[in-house]
């Protein structure tokens, strides 16, 4: 396993135009690769930001026909870098709902692993606004850890970050890097984003890489930005702020071993089923 990794988080403000999103994100990927990034990560729904479920379903394509996936695979092979496609809205064969699917590509453009977002963000707010992700997207059912030259990478997406058990499972399965591509809302992001990501890093002794959407989107969404790279001690190594672009950091992967020796909590879990009772 390589002991260090130059990783970049691409920050975009994706529109409802797939071709435009490919062009903008590809340009930033090229820039990050030119600056030495070995793994370039993209945010959630990087191919299309479309809150209107009907229109999202009309725009989505089956995996085999998706233009974004094909473009990023070609780019990974050309630039000889690994790419985490944070997620794409993908049409599911035989299902009315879409998949919110993350892909890890190697430097030959091959799909090493994919992960379907497990946790759906369904909420009705006090002001009457509602977000019902499960109406448009089919939840995934499997946690995914992928093998890379830099060790194992645990794949998650956005709202997953609020469910600590998933990250603990991934770390205990060997992941030393956890990815959290997101499109966090501005309100929840300003209150919780940094705290949640630093917590997941600290709890698992892992690096957390979280590329994010930013800005005011064409579909009315307002995203928080602040793509983050966090080390296993919870220190923020890079923060993307609020603008389109990228941030990067060098990950010293030996730090995972060091921190997990200092705080070996991953080995100290006890099943609640084995505890006698609540008091």
Notes on the protein architecture:
By secondary structure, the protein is an alpha/beta fold. The protein has one domain: Carbon-nitrogen hydrolase (Nitrilase/N-carbamoyl-D-aminoacid amidohydrolase, 4-Layer Sandwich), CATH 3.60.110.10. 27% of the residues lie in helices and 30% in strands. The chain has helices at residues 18-34, 53-59, 67-79, 164-172, 186-204, 254-262, and strands at 4-11, 39-41, 61-62, 82-91, 98-105, 111-116, 122-124, 130-132, 144-148, 151-155, 175-179, 207-210, 214-216, 222-224, 228-230, 236-239, 245-252. Strands 1, 2, 3, 4, 5, 6 and 17 form a 7-stranded mixed beta sheet that branches. Helix 1 runs parallel beside helix 3. The mean pLDDT is 94.
The oligomeric state is single chain
Q: Could you state the CATH homologous superfamily?
A: Carbon-nitrogen hydrolase
Percent of residues in beta strands? 25-35%
The CATH architecture: 4-Layer Sandwich
Poorly predicted tracts of residues: none
Termini separation (Å)? 46 Å
The run of helices and strands is EHEHEHEEEEEEEHEHEEEEEEH
Give the number of domains.
Answer: 1
Task: Itemize the secondary structure elements and their pairings.
Elements: E1 4-11, H1 18-34, E2 39-41, H2 53-59, E3 61-62, H3 67-79, E4 82-91, E5 98-105, E6 111-116, E7 122-124, E8 130-132, E9 144-148, E10 151-155, H4 164-172, E11 175-179, H5 186-204, E12 207-210, E13 214-216, E14 222-224, E15 228-230, E16 236-239, E17 245-252, H6 254-262
Parallel strand pairs: 1-2, 2-4, 3-4, 10-11, 11-12
Antiparallel strand pairs: 1-17, 4-5, 5-6, 7-8, 9-10, 12-15, 13-14, 15-16
Helix pairs in contact: 1-3
């Amino acid at each position: 396993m390589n002991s260090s990794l130059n990783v970049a988080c691409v920050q975009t403000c994706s529109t409802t135009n797939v071709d435009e999103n490919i062009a903008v994100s590809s340009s930033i990927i090229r820039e990050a690769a030119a600056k030495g990034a070995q793994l370039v990560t993209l945010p959630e729904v990087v191919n299309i930001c479309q809150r209107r479920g009907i229109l999202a379903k009309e725009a989505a394509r089956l995996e085999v026909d998706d233009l974004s996936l094909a473009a990023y695979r070609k780019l990974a092979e050309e630039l000889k870098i690994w790419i985490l496609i944070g997620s794409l809205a993908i049409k599911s064969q035989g299902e009315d709902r879409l998949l919110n699917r993350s892909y890890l590509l190697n430097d030959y453009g091959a799909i090493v692993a994919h992960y379907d977002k497990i946790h759906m963000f369904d909420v009705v707010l006090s002001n009457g606004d509602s977000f019902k992700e499960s109406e448009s997207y089919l939840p995934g059912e499997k946690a995914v850890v992928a093998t890379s030259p830099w060790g194992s990478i645990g794949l998650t997406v956005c709202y997953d970050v609020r469910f600590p058990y998933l990250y603990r499972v991934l770390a205990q399965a060997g992941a030393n890097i956890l990815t959290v591509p997101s499109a966090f809302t501005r309100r929840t992001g300003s209150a919780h984003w940094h705290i949640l990501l630093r917590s997941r890093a600290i709890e698992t002794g892992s690096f957390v890489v979280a590329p994010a959407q930013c800005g005011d989107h064409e579909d009315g969404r307002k995203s928080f930005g602040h793509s983050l790279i966090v080390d296993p001690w919870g220190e923020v190594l890079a923060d993307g702020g609020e603008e389109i672009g990228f941030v990067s950091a060098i990950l010293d992967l030996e730090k995972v071993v060091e921190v997990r020796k200092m705080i070996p909590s991953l080995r100290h879990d006890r099943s609640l089923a084995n505890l006698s009772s609540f008091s």
